[in-house]
């Protein structure tokens, strides 16, 4: 199975932990027992034994190193014998998962394993995602309070099954290199099993609640365009009552053993006092909710919003607004400067002292890289830069893309900015208020662009219809908004046919997820609550849809005055009148 060089001398026999602790077994499913992964597998077994036979773990006591040396000298059979003797791991390697010469899972073996009582189940992503029998087995063990660790092995980037089965909200970001450091949660769970201040790694990076690593920052960074895009983490862990579920994205060798880290994840629920992620407790937050609220109250701010989906607390004082993303320690300020107009800036990795200084003097938070505008008719201009402008729709999508992580590719972000900028320029001239019923060429502007978007939908997804969320009515063919021909449409196309064709090509260049979110927003601002759906009435959605919707609303709440007659979700004027 697994081979190691045998040492000439053996260490003293292993002992049970002095405190009398008896650990449950850790079950490993689907990991290879040959090749490079055999070494990783043996690391898990060795560290499981050490955890089960010593009163402390990875703390450098004098008995640890000789035991580690001894265990590393054993071959596979001897190592498995030791693990069974001292209640260590139970292994079911990938070579034994399937019946001989078949692709069917060995259900008899599954039934035998079902009788066990496990501390944790470690399973590779291929078996968990592609084999329903193993999926159901692992989930069943989880319901019995076994922790679960899913290891990335085959580069399966779709982790939606984990989200559904374990009620988490994780998103795959990239397989890439990054310099990382432990988060506070990571320090509590992994501790000195990752004994580095920072380390450059190449791994599967996932982001969401429960990140154990973050991008290493050796200095404070200001992000003038919205909260920084997520950097992702090789490991994310969700804590439940007396159990946990983790995704392990390290796929390349580290300078330390995988086994030490994996065993820490198996006992994650007991390594931190943060409690369950499913509770309303804010102890897991990078900035505790109670502390944030107390500081805001002391400096005269009124809480106006608590968005639990985006983990944001929002406070207002006079014309100033401060938004605290408490799980990521990101703080955004929106100030109404007497000369510069409305300004906005975000800062990440804010600690308690910095947060207090921001509440005490919000302008200490501003710098040379923020956008400002004076009223709704102006574009956003980057202060201190010549001819650097964004219109409101472009600024909105920059905010949405970066706060949600939807747009992490700079080229695609610029494409979206170009689309909404060019689209709006065909609707309104510079300086005009964004009234949907006061566009250039009247209904011709709408028809030229919306009909082009319908073509993109049909070419990409086939037949479709529109559905009004407010009236619960379906519209198809000529009943869909602006899906008709008229003199205004002919006049518009005579002038802007090339512009429409250019926007269409840019739309078609977008990824499927971004295209859906952008087109749903565009049709929604043409007709309030209108959505694109298939012929069965199923709305075109992505896993980002809820986050994107909330981000649009947050943008409107942050950037528009309270008395503005403008839709918070799309930026369109709802009534006539001057708006500051």
Structure description:
The chain has helices at residues 36-53, 64-72, 76-85, 94-97, 107-114, 125-130, 132-143, 160-166, 184-189, 258-266, 289-298, 352-360, 392-404, 410-427, 443-461, 487-508, 512-526, 545-559; strands at residues 25-29, 90-92, 118-124, 147-151, 171-182, 199-207, 213-215, 222-223, 235-240, 243-248, 302-307, 312-317, 320-325, 330-337, 341-347, 371-373, 380-382, 389-390, 464-468, 473-475, 530-534. The protein is α+β, with helices and mostly antiparallel strands and 580 residues long. It is globular.
Task: Write a brief structural summary.
The chain has 580 residues and is α+β, with helices and mostly antiparallel strands.
What's the topology here?
Elements: E1 25-29, H1 36-53, H2 64-72, H3 76-85, E2 90-92, H4 94-97, H5 107-114, E3 118-124, H6 125-130, H7 132-143, E4 147-151, H8 160-166, E5 171-182, H9 184-189, E6 199-207, E7 213-215, E8 222-223, E9 235-240, E10 243-248, H10 258-266, H11 289-298, E11 302-307, E12 312-317, E13 320-325, E14 330-337, E15 341-347, H12 352-360, E16 371-373, E17 380-382, E18 389-390, H13 392-404, H14 410-427, H15 443-461, E19 464-468, E20 473-475, H16 487-508, H17 512-526, E21 530-534, H18 545-559
Parallel strand pairs: 1-2, 1-3, 3-4, 4-10
Antiparallel strand pairs: 5-6, 5-7, 8-15, 9-10, 11-12, 12-13, 13-14, 14-15, 15-16, 16-17, 17-18, 19-20, 19-21
Helix pairs in contact: 1-2, 1-3, 1-10, 11-12, 13-14, 13-18, 14-16, 15-16, 15-17
């Amino acid at each position: 199975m697994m081979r190691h060089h045998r040492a000439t001398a053996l260490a003293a026999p292993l002992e049970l932990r002095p405190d009398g602790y008896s650990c449950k077994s850790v079950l490993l499913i689907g990991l290879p027992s040959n090749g490079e992964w055999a070494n990783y597998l043996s690391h898990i077994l060795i560290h499981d034994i050490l955890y089960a036979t010593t009163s402390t773990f990875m703390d450098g006591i004098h008995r640890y190193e000789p035991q580690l040396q001894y265990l590393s000298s054993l071959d596979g059979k001897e190592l498995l014998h030791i693990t069974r003797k001292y209640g260590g791991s139970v292994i079911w390697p990938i070579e034994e998962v399937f019946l001989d010469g078949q692709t069917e899972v060995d259900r008899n073996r599954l039934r035998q394993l079902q009788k066990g009582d496990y501390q944790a189940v470690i399973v590779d992503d291929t078996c968990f995602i592609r084999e329903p029998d193993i999926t159901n087995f692992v989930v069943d063990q989880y319901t019995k309070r076994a922790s679960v660790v899913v290891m990335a092995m085959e580069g399966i980037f779709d982790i939606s099954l984990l989200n559904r089965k374990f009620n988490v909200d994780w998103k795959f970001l990239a397989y890439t290199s990054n310099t990382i450091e432990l988060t506070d949660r990571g320090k509590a769970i992994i501790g000195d099993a990752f004994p580095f201040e920072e380390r450059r790694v190449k791994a599967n990076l996932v982001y969401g609640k429960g990140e154990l690593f973050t991008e290493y920052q050796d200095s404070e960074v200001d992000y003038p365009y919205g909260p920084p895009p997520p950097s992702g983490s090789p490991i994310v862990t969700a804590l439940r009552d007396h159990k946990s579920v983790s995704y392990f994205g390290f796929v390349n060798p580290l300078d330390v053993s995988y086994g030490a880290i994996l065993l820490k994840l198996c006992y994650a629920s007991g390594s931190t006092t943060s409690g369950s992620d499913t509770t309303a407790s804010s102890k897991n937050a990078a900035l505790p909710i109670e502390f944030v609220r107390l500081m805001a109250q002391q400096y005269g701010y009124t809480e106006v919003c608590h968005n639990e989906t985006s983990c944001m607390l929002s406070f207002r004082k006079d014309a100033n607004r401060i938004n605290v993303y408490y799980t990521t320690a990101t703080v955004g300020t929106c100030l109404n400067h007497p000369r510069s107009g409305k300004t906005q800036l975000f800062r990440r990795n804010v600690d308690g002292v910095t947060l207090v200084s921001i509440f005490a003097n919000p302008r200490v938070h501003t710098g040379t890289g923020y956008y400002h505008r004076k009223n709704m008719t102006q574009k956003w201009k980057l202060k201190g830069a010549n001819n650097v402008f964004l219109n409101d729709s472009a600024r909105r999508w920059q905010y949405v893309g970066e706060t949600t992580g939807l747009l992490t590719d700079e080229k695609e972000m610029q494409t979206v900015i170009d689309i909404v900028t060019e689209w709006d320029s065909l609707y309104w001239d510079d300086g005009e208020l964004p009234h949907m019923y006061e566009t250039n060429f009247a209904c011709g502007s709408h028809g030229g662009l919306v009909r082009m978007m319908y073509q993109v939908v049909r070419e990409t997804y086939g037949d479709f219809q529109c559905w009004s969320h407010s009236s619960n009515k379906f519209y198809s063919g000529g009943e869909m908004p602006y899906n008709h021909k008229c003199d205004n449409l002919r006049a518009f196309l005579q002038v802007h046919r090339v512009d429409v064709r250019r926007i269409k090509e840019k739309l078609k260049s977008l990824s499927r997820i971004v295209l859906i979110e952008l087109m749903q927003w565009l049709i929604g601002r043409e007709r309030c609550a209108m959505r694109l759906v298939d012929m069965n009435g199923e709305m075109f959605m992505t896993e980002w849809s809820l986050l994107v919707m909330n981000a649009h609303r947050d943008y409107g709440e942050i950037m528009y005055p309270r008395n503005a007659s403008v839709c918070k979700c799309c930026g369109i004027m709802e009534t006539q009148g001057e708006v500051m």
